[in-house]
Amino acid sequence: MRLKRSERRLALVQYLTENPFATDEQLAEKFGVSVATIRLDRAGLHIPEARERIRRLAAGGHDAVRSLETQEVVGELVELQLNRYAISILNVLPIHVFARTEIMRGHFLFAQVNSLAIAVMDTDVALTAKSQLRFYRPVKLGETVTARADVIANRADIVKCRVYAESDGDVVLDGAVWVVTNLVHLREFSE
């Protein structure tokens, strides 16, 4: 059953409140209308395109990264609370995929969550000591991956982060990354 324009617009506002990174293509599929219709709806509601919504969230929603340069975070950092959590988004481009299958290379997914685990540290030096990850489904060219790292344990200078990434409402990767903030503790993971 198709929604009337007024119902669809109301649903669109509600959906974007919960999913601010949704693209016009994803919205068109969700509501069963054309991309042009979604653009008209957004214009009528004065809702900017996905890139502008992301930029606005990024401008007001995070602390300053200390442990690496902001441009070293894989994806666009949209939220950061040091020693608590970090969120980034990554639009999957041709450079991120295998040419023949258009499936995203796993090391880019790892790099996205790993760079978040490093970025969330409120220290000048942080290194990955160990990771334990599970990949659930392939990510394809054109998808948008939202990743998050949450600090869940902190013992001395060893921090455990729960990490996950999702695309189109599906979890595509989850697990844990252990980060050391004092290089002396790196030996504990090599023995």
What's a quick, concise take on this entry?
The protein has helices at 5-18, 24-31, 35-45, 50-60, 106-119; strands at residues 76-81, 85-91, 127-135, 144-155, 158-167, 170-180. It is an alpha+beta fold and 191 residues long.
Summarize the structure in words.
- It is a single chain.
- Helix content is 30%, strand content 29%.
- It has five helices and six strands; from the N terminus they run H-H-H-H-E-E-H-E-E-E-E.
- It has helices spanning 5-18, 24-31, 35-45, 50-60, 106-119; strands at 76-81, 85-91, 127-135, 144-155, 158-167, 170-180.
- A six-stranded antiparallel sheet has the order 1-2-4-5-6-3.
- Strand 5 (158-167) and strand 6 (170-180) form a beta hairpin.
- Helix 2 (24-31) crosses helix 3.
- The longest helix is centred in the first third of the chain and has 14 residues, at 5-18.
- The model has no long low-confidence stretch (mean pLDDT 85).
Which sheet architecture does the biggest sheet show?
6 strands, antiparallel
> How many whole angstroms does the radius of gyration measure?
19 Å
Q: Total number of helical segments?
A: 5
**Contiguous runs where pLDDT drops below 50 for at least 5 residues:** none
SSE order and pairing:
Elements: H1 5-18, H2 24-31, H3 35-45, H4 50-60, E1 76-81, E2 85-91, H5 106-119, E3 127-135, E4 144-155, E5 158-167, E6 170-180
Main features:
191 residues; alpha+beta; Arc Repressor Mutant, subunit A
